[in-house]
Specification:
10 strands, two-stranded antiparallel sheet, 314 residues
Length: 314
């Protein structure tokens, strides 16, 4: 017996930054599976074109030009979904910009603009949507993190910080939503889009050649936004029961990304630890040959305390 097809029929989804690139691919894929889409983009022409594409294919979509980098814009986006469709089931936080530069050269505006669009917008959109989802006792939230945020490279410190922040927000909301049927996950896209147009990462071409090698092209068909859209459609569906996890799609490879903690070194007498002792055990502290992947902060504490309790009991 085959798997049940993934359907988003009767689901309502808002997708930020959906006028092009990844957001466009998500909107088309999810609409094709039956979701009613609120296509959000501050570029009205792009948003309208995506709506036209979806409706021409028999789907349902409306446009939103709200600026989700502001609290009012986030609230207005959610309100438009309610006004048109009467509910909201899915939020895909995809809006993002680049303002690249070496750390010492970044202006205050380049820092704050990226923080507003990439990170703050996820708060401004998800919080009003969250109240609705909790009342419905159902919801799916997809955050757009990045390998630049969790593994990173030079020349994009502002962007990296926001994307790492979205991973933290994913974990926090996943915990809060687990008893209300709200699942929250993050994606780390490797995709060829227009986000970098006019915003080259300084030194990136040279570092790519040096660290990836001349035989690894920066762009190829295995970096299409559509490869990401399949994962997002799954995470947005009721088939997905996973929460609090992150997934990378890199040239056709789909894989979970996680933060782990090495078993490390446990001091026999924590009250008498010195910096010299830390140095003495630094190889053991850094050794990831044995590690755990805590789901929540409580898991890390329990992993440390349980052996101590067992030892104390003899």
């Amino acid at each position: 017996m085959g798997q049940r097809p993934i359907s988003l029929q009767d689901r309502v989804a808002v997708i930020t930054g959906a006028g092009r690139g990844l957001g466009l691919a998500y909107a088309v894929e999810m609409a094709g599976r039956g979701a009613a889409i609120v296509v959000n983009d501050i570029d009205a022409t792009c948003a309208d074109e995506v709506v036209s594409t979806i409706t021409e294919q028999g789907g349902i979509a409306i446009a939103s030009y709200d600026d989700v980098s502001t609290p009012d814009g986030g609230a207005a986006l959610v309100a438009s979904a309610l006004a048109r469709f009467g509910k909201l089931d899915v939020v895909v936080n995809n809006a993002g910009i680049l303002r690249n530069g070496f750390f010492e050269d970044l202006s205050l505006e380049e820092i704050e603009a990226v923080l507003r669009v990439n990170l703050a917008s996820a708060f401004y959109v998800t919080q009003p949507a969250w109240r609705i989802m909790k009342d419905l006792r159902y919801g799916r939230v997809v955050m757009t993190s990045s390998s630049t945020g969790l593994f990173s490279h030079g020349g994009a410190a502002n962007y990296a910080a926001t994307k790492a922040g979205l991973y933290g927000l994913t974990k926090a909301l996943a915990f809060e939503g687990q008893d209300f049927g709200v699942r929250v996950n993050a994606v780390l896209p490797w995709a060829t889009t227009t986000i970098a147009a006019g915003n080259p990462v300084p030194g990136h071409v040279e570092n790519w050649r040096r660290l990836c090698g001349p035989d690894v092209p920066p762009d190829d068909p295995r970096r299409s936004p559509e490869l990401m859209a399949h994962l997002v459609a799954y995470l947005a569906s009721d088939h997905c029961t996973t929460t609090g996890e992150a997934f990378s799609v890199c040239r056709g490879r789909y894989g979970r990304v996680f933060a782990g903690v090495a078993d490390g070194w446990s001091a026999e007498d924590p009250s008498n630890v010195t910096a010299e002792q830390v140095e003495e055990h630094v190889d053991q502290i850094r050794d990831i040959g044995r590690h755990t992947v805590p789901m929540w902060v409580f898991d890390e504490v329990r992993t440390v305390v349980e052996p101590l309790v067992t030892h104390a009991r003899g």
